[in-house]
Amino acid sequence: METLDHIFRLLAGIGLFLFAMYMLEESMKNLSGRNFKLFLQRITKNKIGAVSGGAIVTAVLQSSSMVSFMVLAFVGAGVFTMKNAMAIILGANLGTTLASWLVATLGFRMDIEIVAYPAVCIGGFLLILFGSRKTFKYLSFFLLGFGLLFISLAFMRTAMESQVKIFDFSKYAEIPLIGFLLIGFIITMLVQSSSVTMALTLSALHVGAISFPIAAAIVLGSETGTTIKIVLGAIGGNASKKRVVLGNLLFNVFVTLFTLILLKPILYLITDIFNIKDSLIGLVTFSSLINLLSIIIFLPILDPFTQFLERFFKDTNGAITAFIGNATTAEPLTALDLFKRETNYFIHNSMLFNLELFKIESQKIQGNIEFKTINEKRKYFIKNTAEKYDFLKQLQGELQAFYLSLRPKLESEQYSELNQLISAVRSSMHSVKSIKDIATNINDLRNSSKEIKYNFFIHHKKETEVLYLQLGALLSFEKKASFENLQYLFDSIQQNYTEALNNFYAEAQNTSIQNIDITTVINFNRELFTSNKAMLIALKDFLLKEKQAQEFNEIPTYKT
Q1: Nearest by Cα to 123 from 104, 107, 138, 108
Q2: Contacts made by residues 281-286, CB under 8 angstroms, sequence distance 24+
Q3: What angle do CA 549, 554, 557 make, to 5 degrees?
């Protein structure tokens, strides 16, 4: 019965530890998760930056799985190259050891009552009194998680101490180290947290239930155990995601086997060369050391390693989205970032469609290297007009479907951004349809032998080119969008529509022109105005904050 009590106390410690890690992860993800995603995107321009970024973000968020899922989402969307994704994961494995150092240096060396109980007390009061405010809510999560982390360690430690007094663990010491490696793998695979395995191992090592080599073998097994969750996360993903997961799995298996073979020399290095006699510090040093050595080994060969991974898996996904095709709503903030990129890509291609019907070449708009590369892969440029229109319709449909799946996963304050983005997609498609509907009119005016019709078209072509250059500068963030400059563009669209119509009427009074031609010109002018207005509204919803976008909606949008 006494043994059963100790087991339940140990299990309670594990459950409490997992809950504490969840609280810490949620707090950091919501307080600074988006900032870290942007930080990752900025710093991952090279391998060294990617490794550093992975280590820093994981050290703060304390979840290598969370960072790995974030990376998988960005790889699937084409934001990260496979090489940089692997470098980030290398860094993430090192960054997650920070929790181990925290547990080893504080969890077993200080009275938990000094820190843990006050943290839980303050966190609880903050949650009850100010839980409706996001910042206070997740600050309380952090304090509760921090305090409960040390309380859970006390549960595990006391359970181990009590069990050691009544049970002889020494008879298991003769089991080969590979057996303990498998134990570490299985524990981590079941709880999906290498931090839990490390905490359990440190507790057992602290009370003398296991030796230092056995503890090292268990921790080594946990290195590969965490990959199972990532493997499951790639099921149904595109080829790029599966290659990254395969690379991560091969990397962890290699590191595990390589370290197992050299386990004795590595432990000798720690205890005799580094002269670390404290077994707890020695164990976390071992964990950090093998992850640091794996970076040193793999970083120089990432190029050939990723080339090797390219041989595996083929894309069979029929989706045409560039960024959200294999994104997961399990990471809603990452999905929202990718949805915004997809919206940018959609508006970009809509602008290209409209310009092409006017036969306007604009290198500043078509020269977006990222989108140009995506379009080349999708053979967009060799499609005819009808095929490009169908492409945009399908892309809009996929964006709409993803919007419906993402919306329930977001918090209320993020609804407005998502709604503005899908509104931008609708307005952009409206602009495209308006231009498509007057394609015949455009050809008629462009090839007309009548000066009044031809000059009318040339005037609008020039005005359209000027407008789209300005819109393109805003869309590519070359020029900062503001309420004032968007209003200026809207006024110019309105003014061009009205002046062109009045000038045409004035010329038509002194020129012989058929009724059908008048209808063609008026229809062309009206639909072009509608298209330009819709494209501007799309950029308004894409670029402006919610309040400014609502104020812009109050501007009269139709005058004759």
Answers
A1: 138
A2: 281/104, 281/105, 282/212, 283/100, 283/104, 283/198, 283/201, 283/202, 283/205, 283/212, 283/215, 283/216, 283/219, 284/97, 284/100, 284/101, 284/103, 284/104, 284/198, 284/202, 286/216, 286/219
A3: 100
Is the overall model pTM greater than 0.90, yes or no?
no
Q: How far is the C-alpha of 297 from the C-alpha of 217, rounded, in Å?
A: 20
CA distance 515 to 227: 72
The C-alpha atoms of residue 431 and residue 536 are separated, in whole angstroms, by 9
- Going by C-alpha positions, the residue among 190, 194, 18 that lies closest to residue 92 is 194
- C-beta of residue 95 within 8 angstroms of C-beta of residue 57: yes
pLDDT computed for residue 167 by the predictor = 58
Cα→Cα distances 233→51, 64, 139, 328, 412, Å: 22, 13, 29, 9, 26
Cβ atoms of 29 and 65 within 8 Å: the answer is no
Distance of CA 263 to the CA centre of its chain: 37
CA 29 to chain centre: 12
Which residue is it, tokens 């022109």?
513
State pLDDT tens for residues 53-99.
888 877 766 666 667 777 776 776 666 777 888 888 888 888 888 87
